[in-house]
Each structure stands twice: as C-alpha cells, then as structure tokens.
Predict the 3D structure of the following.
Amino acid sequence: MTAFLRFHDLTKSYYEGDVRRVVLQNAHAEFEPGEITVILGKSGSGKSTLLNLISGIDQPDSGQIWVEGQDLTALRERERTLFRRARIGFIFQFFNLIPTLTVGENVLLPLELNRTPRLLARQKAESLLAEVGLLDRWATFPEKLSGGEQQRVALARALVHDPLLILADEPTGNLDEETGAQVMSLLTKLTREQNRTLLMVTHSLEAAAHADRVLRLSHGQFIAER
Ligand SMILES: Nc1ncnc2c1ncn2[C@@H]1O[C@H](COP(=O)(O)OP(=O)(O)OP(=O)(O)O)[C@@H](O)[C@H]1O
Ligand SMILES: [Mg+2]
C-alpha cells in the first residue's frame, strides 16, 4: 500500500549571490488519506518552502514528490498547474481573498478554473458557504468581513472543488485565540468528513491537539514529535 502523499530524498536550496542556503536536505515523509499532520519549525526552517514544493509552485533541486502515485517532479509546469487546481486546496495566513470579487465569486473561482458547469458550481459554492456559516454574505466584498469571517470564506474556497489534499500555512496565525480555535475546528471537521489529507503549518498548540501526527522541521529534515 503506497501512501497518499510521499516525498523522498527531497533537497531544496536557495542561492543568494554565490552563497547556497540549504533549506531541505534529503527530507522524507509519508502521509495517509484522511490524516491530519501539523508541521512545526522555527521561522526560516523551510515550512512554507515545503508547501510550495508539494503544490508544485516551486521545484526541488532533487528528490521526488508523489501524490496518489503521480510523481509531481516528473510533470511539466503546465501539468503541475492543472494538477494543483484539480487536487489541492490552499489556506494562507493572510486569507488571500481577491478584493475585487465578492465572497461568492471568490468561492466560485476554483470551480471556474476547473471548468465546472455553471449550475453545479453555484450549488457547490453555496453549499460550502453554508457549511462555514456565511451564505448570507454571498454578495459582500472581503474587506467588509472580519478576519475570522474572511478565513472561513478562504476555507470554503479551499474546499469547494473537493481537493484530496489541503495545505494550510499558519491558517490561524492572524486570528485571535478564540476565532482561531473556531476556524481550526471547522477545518479539521471538513477535512475528516471527506477523508481528505491535511498538512498544516502552525505554531498553535490548540491546532496540534487536533492533529493525528506532529512533525518538526529542523535542519532540513522531519522529526516525528508525536
Ligand atoms: N525565493 C527565495 N529566495 C531566496 N531565499 C528564499 C526564498 N524563499 C525562501 N527563502 C529562504 O528559505 C528559508 C526558508 O524559508 P521559508 O519561508 O520556507 O521558512 P518558514 O519555515 O516558512 O518560516 P516562517 O515560519 O517565518 O514562515 C529562509 O531562510 C528564506 O530566507
Ligand atoms: Mg512560512
């Protein structure tokens, strides 16, 4: 049985002038369907870099990343983009909603990119917004919403196209403790209900309590913390 997500011998470095800074060094890990993993690590340890590699936004120096048996590092950029749109949902620290689009239009966007038929897209978007308790804000612009509401819209947008893999980069980093805890419960509930795989970078102990597994990224490698 192969893991749902697996990376092997993953190395990534950045150059500043002639100086090479190694961020990931021969890192490996495996993740099962339905598993919620929290990734801890100091600032600059490479957590966001890892998520960018898994999502195919960035390419490793060497090593492989398999999602559902597909080696992402073997795909061309265009194929990686299509794979990302179809299979991955993202949640960021600063919500990253598009300010010129309404709440409803933000949630519809992943479906439009995947060419989902219009009526079905509308139904999916409405059902996800209902799940996060914001269906009545369909026509509102993001700037009119509180931080917690914006992150709930971002959650709906990340899940609306039924991704198998959800990547979250400090999703509660910009929310107060109570709001953060609400967003976290919602995210883990929606992940578990659909047997999705969630990788979440966070410093929140509350979030780590929701996880099946906690990994620490240190000196370019992953160490099981729990
Ligand atoms: N595009 C880039 N060019 C050069 N260096 C980069 C680039 N992206 C990241 N780095 C470097 O790689 C290292 C890891 O960065 P990364 O953003 O992955 O850290 P992080 O663990 O997410 O940190 P934080 O907790 O502060 O978000 C840092 O030293 C950073 O300066
Ligand atoms: Mg980061």
